[in-house]
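Worked example 3 (structure in, sequence out).
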């Protein structure tokens, strides 16, 4: 049996509901935070492959040292070209950086936009 039509939740409005219990005039607007970034659209299998395959291989390839300053502590594996700017989740787009160099590179990437 079909559902009965309901009216807008906004006080005083008698129009039929369109979305989220409100009419077309009062329906919620899509929020910027609701859109997904390139990183959030990545399949979980790709993220697991990064953590299990690419990250350890990048560390071994780079000799467990930062490629910028040579530090051997607080190492992180970074995307050379950020995913949001068209980078890939492959070993060719990975590099080992210490925490400080990674922060510096991330700031440089943000300034380039």
């Amino acid at each position: 049996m079909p559902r009965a039509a309901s009216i807008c939740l906004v006080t005083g409005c008698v129009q039929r509901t369109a979305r989220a219990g409100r009419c077309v005039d009062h329906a919620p607007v899509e929020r910027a935070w609701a859109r997904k970034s390139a990183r959030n659209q990545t399949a979980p299998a790709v993220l697991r492959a990064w953590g299990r395959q690419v990250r350890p291989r990048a560390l071994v390839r780079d000799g467990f040292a930062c490629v910028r300053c040579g530090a051997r502590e607080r190492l992180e594996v970074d995307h050379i070209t950020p995913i949001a700017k068209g980078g890939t989740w492959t070993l060719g787009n990975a590099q080992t950086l210490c925490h400080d160099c990674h922060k510096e590179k991330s700031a440089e990437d943000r300034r380039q936009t």
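Notes: The helical segments are 44-61, 99-111. The chain has two domains: 1-30, 44-111.
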